[in-house]
Write a structure and sequence with these properties.
Ribosomal Protein L30, Chain: A; 32% helix; Ribosomal_uL30_bac-type; alpha+beta; 3 strands; three-stranded antiparallel sheet
Length: 60
């Protein structure tokens, strides 16, 4: 399974509550924080909801 590096690049201030909870579910609490996840449909769905707030890179 591929690994994804997810980095929060934009602030969650003034975002809907569902997007804030999506960031927290991904493990992102602060700007610039990077977390690693396996690529699966649940994680990809969460990333899709907050794609304007994060950057995603496939880890090797």
């Amino acid at each position: 399974m591929a690994k994804l590096l997810v980095k929060q690049v934009r602030s969650k201030i003034n975002c809907p509550l569902t997007q804030k909870r999506g960031l927290e579910a991904l493990g992102l609490r602060k700007m610039g924080q990077v977390v690693e996840h396996d690529s699966n449909p649940a994680i990809l769905g969460m990333i899709n909801k907050v794609k304007h707030l994060v950057s995603v890179v496939e880890a090797k």
